[in-house]
């Protein structure tokens, strides 16, 4: 897939019919149905992640008849799928309507029957490489893996994965998630493995686990889920996370402490997040309105404002739909030109290696 770049990139009768029916609804019908439902339940959408705070606010302004019920903002992709499983017979407020998950979790959600198909009105503008042909999940945005560094505490900012093993970084390096459940953390391990020359997939997972085993043995790894607060407090002076999260943390802290964001030139990795509607959504019409909103010009520009590159980025730029101030605020293009977009199969193989091997190989209980 290449969004800012130029990326090359057994269904039942009931499912086929639902695709057709879902796509055939008009906006007026969706709005009327959503009014009757009165609520949308999201999960795992921190307000400082990819501009979601403003995106949710604009959705509320557009559809004031809907209450947005936000579940567990810090959940990982695996947690989102578990929330659907655990609440499939529950139509109450703990049942998510929509999910935002790493690309490798898309096929799993479809195979388990956890999501339902819906093709948004701009379906043709979403690159084929990041969407399920039947509409079960579809990519909204991507970023690249980076290091966010508290320069009050770190004199020499690391620029490559191998730098993190240096003794000067003792007790300073953390992942922004649990690598047994978080897509962001799992792909952080993939990036580390690729930096050591491993091919994306099982090999990158195994090489990445070995890297983190060494990092942990050296005393450099901190088994804490890193975020802006832990960066500022000094608990995790070096955070491994998506560039848009790192840049948002920098902005949130506003120089107290100063934060520098770097993208490693070895193992430069891009990660796509996909959207889907729960097969058991209590509010299916509201869920579809949400999908239409986040893929609209307004929603896509909300992601860009949050430093993300989006599914419709190239098309919207060509049409003059992305404000120049948003384009000017994006990081330099060079890291994105080098970034590798792993396939669904490569991500899935890496995920299996990391999730199954983290405890036995690394042995650090991240929480």
Please, could you describe this protein's structure?
It is a single chain. This protein is an alpha+beta fold. The chain has helices at residues 13-24, 27-37, 52-62, 77-86, 105-111, 183-195, 202-217, 228-233, 243-253, 284-295, 297-305, 313-318, 324-329, 334-338, 344-362; strands at residues 39-43, 67-71, 98-102, 115-116, 138-150, 173-175, 238-242, 259-262, 270-278, 309-310. The strands form 2 sheets. Strands 3, 4, 5, 6, 7, 8, 9 and 10 form an 8-stranded mixed beta sheet that branches. A two-stranded parallel sheet has the order 1-2. α3 (52-62) runs antiparallel to α11. This is ABC-type Fe3+ transport system periplasmic component-like protein.
Short synopsis of the structure:
It comes from Polymorphum gilvum (strain LMG 25793 / CGMCC 1.9160 / SL003B-26A1). With 367 residues, the chain is α+β, with helices and mostly antiparallel strands.
Summarize this structure as a short list of keywords or feature phrases.
14% strand, ABC-type Fe3+ transport system periplasmic component-like protein, eight-stranded mixed beta sheet, alpha+beta, two-stranded parallel ribbon, disordered N terminus, D-Maltodextrin-Binding Protein, domain 2, 367 residues, globular, 15 helices, 2 domains
């Amino acid at each position: 897939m290449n969004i800012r770049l130029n990326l090359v990139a057994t269904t039942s009768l009931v499912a086929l019919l639902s695709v057709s029916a879902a796509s055939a609804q008009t906006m007026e019908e969706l709005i009327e149905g959503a009014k009757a439902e009165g609520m949308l339940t999201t999960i795992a959408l921190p307000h400082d992640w990819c501009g979601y705070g403003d995106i949710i606010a604009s959705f509320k302004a557009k559809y004031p008849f809907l209450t947005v019920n936000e579940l567990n903002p810090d959940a990982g992709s695996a947690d989102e799928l578990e929330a659907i499983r655990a609440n499939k017979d529950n139509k109450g407020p703990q049942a998510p309507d929509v999910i935002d998950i790493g690309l490798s979790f898309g096929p799993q959600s479809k195979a388990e029957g956890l999501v339902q198909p819906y093709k948004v009105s701009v379906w043709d503008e979403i690159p084929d490489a990041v969407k399920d042909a039947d509409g079960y999940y579809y990519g909204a945005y991507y970023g690249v893996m980076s290091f966010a560094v508290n320069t009050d505490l770190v004199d020499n900012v690391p620029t490559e994965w191998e730098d993190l093993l240096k003794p000067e970084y003792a007790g300073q390096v953390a992942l922004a998630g649990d690598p047994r459940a978080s897509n962001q953390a799992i792909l952080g391990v993939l990036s580390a493995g690729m930096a050591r020359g491993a091919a994306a997939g099982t090999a990158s997972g195994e090489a990445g686990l070995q890297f983190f085993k060494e990092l942990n043995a050296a005393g450099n790894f901190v088994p804490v889920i890193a975020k802006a607060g832990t960066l500022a407090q000094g608990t995790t002076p070096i955070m491994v996370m998506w560039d848009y999260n790192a840049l948002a943390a920098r902005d949130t802290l506003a120089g107290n402490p100063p934060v520098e964001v770097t993208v490693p030139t070895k193992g430069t990795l891009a990660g796509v997040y996909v959207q889907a509607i729960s097969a058991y959504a209590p509010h299916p019409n509201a869920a579809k309105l949400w999908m239409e909103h986040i893929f609209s010009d307004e929603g896509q520009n909300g992601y860009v404002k949050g430093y993300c590159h989006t599914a419709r980025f190239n098309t919207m730029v060509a049409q003059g739909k992305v404000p120049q101030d948003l384009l000017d605020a994006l990081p330099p293009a060079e890291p994105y030109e080098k970034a590798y977009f792993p396939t669904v199969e490569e991500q899935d193989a890496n995920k299996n290696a990391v999730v199954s091997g983290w405890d036995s190989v690394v042995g650090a209980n991240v929480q």
